[in-house]
Amino acid sequence: MPKAKAPKLTQAQWWRAAEYEQAPHQILDNLVKQIEDDQQSRYQAYREYERIFGSSVGPDGDDSFRAIATDELTQNELQNTIETLWAQVFKNKVVPAVSVSEADWNEWDRARSYGRWLKGALDEAKVYEEAFPQSGIHTLVHGTGILRVGWRETGPKQAQVTTWAVNPRYVLVDRLEGKHRKPRSIFFKDHVDRFVLWETYSEDRKDFYKTPGYRTHGIESCTSNDDRELGTVNTTRCDMITVREAFHLPSGPSAKDGRHVIWIKGCTLVDEEFDWDTFPCVFMRFGCPMEGFWGESAVRRLAPTQKLLDKLNVKIDQSQDVMGVPRIIIRRNSNVTKAHIDDVPGGILEVDDINGIRDWNAQCASQEIYADRDSAPRKMRSLLGVSDFEVQQQMPQGMRDVSGAMLERWVDQGQARHAMFHAEYENAVPQLAYLYMRQAEDLQAMGYDVMVKAPADSHNKSSIEELSFKEVCIDRKRLKLEVQPMSQLPQTFAGKVEAFAKLKNEAGVQVDPKTILRNIEVPDVQGVTDMLVSDEEIIFKNLSHMCRTGRYLAPMPFDNLDMIVQMTTRYINHYRVRQDADYEKVGLLAQYIDDAIQLKKGLGANDPNAPPAISTMDALSIPGGMPGAPPGVPMPPMGDPMAPPMPPGAPPGPAQMPPMPPPGMPL
Fold first, then answer.
1. Are strands 347-351 and 327-331 parallel, antiparallel or unpaired?
2. Partner of 52 at 20 to 30 A CA spacing, among 11, 259, 311, 370?
3. Nearest 5°: phi and psi at 166?
4. H and E: helices and strands count for the chain
């Protein structure tokens, strides 16, 4: 059945500009102007949020000095509260971990290397030092934080994935299209020096629009400083051009209408297909807006209380100027020379009957005004769930005699108030990691390799290893990224130790020491963990190798022989669940158990009175087998896997073969 025709062309469908026989900028210039005019109230609100927060830098200029000169500044508790919440959330470094479905040891090890590559790529892009903190401030002040992902060339066929925070004032989404937070198009803008643009787009490249002459002529003739966000039209101080960028997502998995366009006024620079199923950016939002694309500003929540604090401070200051000076009372015509006392700050009051004045205690403002002023900062902190203890690092007066458990619950309750903001950060990390994978895959298809420096996979955490993306990458359909939730354990080392102690002493839960080390994050925890789990890893590696290749690997004297018996028994049962289980390989695993038992007995004293027993390998020759085994292939009996070895003097068999080293180990 032939496919139906696409809907009728409209002026809003800028990604179909070629069907109009027009350049994309001819449609986008007018379309973006309409959307910007429609959202001027949002831009004005953003500028007001920045001014209240105390960092007003925009088209109106930096008015911080004017505020100081005109005595407009008062106690800015709004900024202190927001910065405290920001510091609580972004002091943690959340690193994604790669998990692979139905992976053997080799794939599991490759996934671990992939996770280290991700960590190295995020570190080299300064994601935790610059991008996330800046985006976090935007999230709290504007309500929405945005992280963009891109790339830059670092050498011959070498590239790096980059990340930077984008001010929401430079991002545009149609209000109706973003009603349910699922827009199909998004627009960015920035200001770039004319000569930088000319140098970049004068190259003859296939991914650029038309010819170098067309692009350089458009850059030379473009009007500079024409954007209202720059706040100036003077071209003698700078020569900045407004550069805009548009993305349109494909309409379906097999659709080819995804588009990416970069343009300046009057000239298209890039027009190419875009096949990603998501925009190259991550969004973090504050609050719970019922509808719409943009989040709620924390400044908007706190602004009324901050304005009340400003009003009370001004009233108290004015009262102190009028009433907060000494008053001297003298009787009229008392022959006191005022020149002798007028050097005292204050005023001189003359009265007819000085005996009628019983007391003079001028009060600047009532106690209620002072109480309201002092309580305003606490109100703002309570609105965001920030405790006084976290801001002032002082125990409240009423909490100084409570128990440690009560204090811990009190602190955790404060963290629960802004758990949603923590969750936004935690969710943004794997989203950003997926974008890194996607960008690196595109770079690999373009012939680039993405090399990063990451901690080496060894017990020596101080060593650094260069990892190539093409050597560690895994199909994204077979992996999943996970992060350790930050709010499940206390944030301090002592708090984490106490939490695990309570699990053991109060709940009776026995937690493995290796699990504790992984979660409390002691210095060099990776090195300690690698040493502790090395016995398990080498066994798991050998078992995976035998099941994958069908080649037998005998245990070695320095292996953990008891662990071989336990792990291989579980591995056999896990392997048999698979539909493609090969029972000849089950026999290899059973031989692995028998050889471990025999090797352990050879390392210890022989027991001449030990009764003869049937080994696991001999049990495979018993007629019948267990239910579920293929015809003609017997299964090991359901017995104790720690069965005694063959009696002394048995003929040499597989158990007496010289041990083979594991893969990768020299002979």
1. parallel
2. 370
3. -115, 130
4. 22, 14
pLDDT tens, residue by residue, 474-515: 877 777 776 654 445 555 566 667 777 777 776 677 777 766
Q: Is residue 352 part of a domain?
A: yes
Side-chain-facing half-sphere of 276: CA atoms under 13 Å: 20
Q: DSSP 3-state assignment of 132?
A: helix
Beta strands in 316-463 (DSSP E): 327-331, 347-351, 451-455
Average pLDDT over residues 540-550: 86
Q: Is residue 621 part of a domain?
A: yes
Would you state the pLDDT for residue 438?
92
DSSP state of 365: S
Q: Are 571 and 594 in contact (CB under 8 A)?
A: no
- Which residue, of 413, 434, 457, is where some domain finishes? 413
Helix (H) or strand (E) holding 329: strand 327-331
What span, in angstroms and rounded, lies between the C-alpha atoms of 447 and 158? 9
User: pLDDT tens, 599-610?
Assistant: 888 765 454 454
Digit-coded pLDDT (tens) for 169-200: 999 999 999 888 899 999 999 999 999 999 99
Q: What are the distances in angstroms from CA 612 to CA 238, 527, 609, 617? A: 93, 45, 9, 14
Domain hosting residue 306, numbered range? 299-413
Distances (CA, A) of 49 to 53, 175, 246, 300, 302: 6, 20, 27, 7, 10
Nearest to 473 by CA among 19, 116, 235: 116
Query: Is the residue at 228 inside a domain?
Result: no
Report the candidate in 417, 404, 427 with the shortest Cα–Cα distance to residue 492: 404
Strand pairing partners for 191? 242
| Interatomic CA distance for residues 234 and 226, integer angstroms | 10
- Asked if 384 and 141 count as a contact pair (C-beta separation under 8 A), the reply is no
Cα–Cα distance, 531 to 538 (Å, whole number): 11
Of 385, 413, 441, the position where a domain reaches its end is 413
Say if residues 446 and 207 touch (Cβ distance below 8 Å). Answer: no
Amino acid identity for residue 448 in this structure: Y
- In degrees rounded to 5, what are phi and psi of residue 247? -125, 140
Does residue 30 have a pLDDT over 70? yes
The answer to whether position 596 is within a domain reads yes
Report the distance separating Cα 452 and Cα 436, nearest Å. 12
- What dihedral angle (degrees, nearest 10) is formed by the CA atoms of 604, 608, 610, 614? 90
Q: What is the pLDDT of residues 52-92, one digit of tens each?
A: 888 755 544 555 545 544 455 567 888 888 888 888 888 77
Q: List residues bridging with 260 in a β-sheet.
A: 247, 272
The number of distinct structural domains making up the chain is 2
87, 105 Cβ separation under 8 angstroms:
no
164, with CB counted inside 10 A (0-12, 13-18, 19+), is: middle
What distance lies between CA 537 and its chain's CA centroid? 29
Tokens of 394: 């002082």
Rounded to an integer, what distance in angstroms lies between the CA atom of residue 645 and that of residue 273? Answer: 67
Long-range own/partner contacts, residues 171-176 (CB < 8 A, 24 or more apart)? 171/146, 172/32, 172/35, 172/36, 172/39, 173/293, 174/35, 175/38, 175/39, 175/292, 175/293
End-to-end CA distance of the chain: 64
